[in-house]
Design brief:
mainly alpha, 8 helices, about 260 residues, single chain
Length: about 260
């Protein structure tokens, strides 16, 4: 009973963190250049989370449950390819209304924001699965997973919200972001109810699939968006490195519990 209460409180905390970070870009209404610099910092955080947290954890959890490393690689690749196909469909079927530079620019941001929304939404559901699995294993493991998810959820929703504010979907940004913020808590609660007392050996492979999704969104949506303005490329690079260093320091400080 105590574990269940702790889990529900954690879901509420994740929702609160997500909503605050999601509505920051919407409320401050920063300039286009500022938004791109914010995304550049988030891109560094995304890269750090991908290579220092998600991929190592996916490999570790899968191999702990008897899966060979190539099986893990296949799961990551499938997640990447599935998201690639979704992204391709958005870009192929959603075309700019005209060929002027302004329309093409808004179109690019709109497609990026919608593609990232879909990809990160799938990943957000796996975040809920990961946290539910961690709490089923034990409260101490769940608490560590909570810290990791809060850090990466903050960067995730802030960056996604910023891309919406650069697109022609500004008026719908609040609706999209509210829905996105609810996904991890709802998926977590559902997974907790369904998985309690069930063998969770498959969780590592599911996490690997999720890491593949996160890899695509990071490399093909967030990083390119961060360097969308050539005039800001140097500042964007420095902020990307800073975001990466933040995650690196976090991992080093948490030591063996970082994943």
């Amino acid at each position: 009973m105590e574990t269940t209460v702790s889990f529900v409180l954690c879901m509420i905390l994740i929702l609160a963190v997500s909503l605050v970070c999601a509505y920051l870009p919407i409320s401050i209404r920063a300039k286009d250049s500022t938004m791109h610099l914010m995304i550049a910092f988030s891109a560094g955080v995304f890269i750090g989370i991908l290579f220092l947290v998600l991929l190592p954890e996916a490999i570790h959890e899968s191999e702990e449950n008897g899966f060979e490393h190539m099986t893990v690689m296949y799961a990551i690749l499938i997640g990447f390819i599935v998201t690639f196909v979704i992204d391709f469909a958005f870009k192929y079927f959603k075309r700019a209304e005209c060929d002027c530079d302004e329309c093409k620019d808004f179109h690019s941001h709109t497609v990026t924001s919608l593609s990232a929304f879909v990809g990160l939404s799938i990943h957000a559901c796996f975040d809920g699965l990961a946290l539910a699995t961690a709490f089923i294993v034990g409260d101490d493991v769940g608490a560590l997973m909570l810290v990791a998810i809060c850090i990466h959820k903050a960067a995730e929703v802030f960056s996604l919200s910023s891309t919406f504010m650069l697109s022609d979907n500004k008026k719908k940004a609040g609706t999209y972001m509210t829905a996105f913020c609810l996904m991890t808590p709802l998926a977590g609660i559902l997974a907790y109810l369904l998985l309690e007392g069930v063998d969770i050996a498959f969780a590592g492979i599911a996490f690997a699939f999720s890491a593949g999704i996160f890899m695509f969104v990071t490399m093909m949506d967030i990083v390119p968006e961060a360097f969308h303005r050539k005039s800001l490329s140097i500042k964007s690079l420095l902020l990307l490195i800073l975001g990466l260093c933040v995650i690196l320091l976090t991992v080093l400080l948490m030591g063996p519990h970082a994943h």
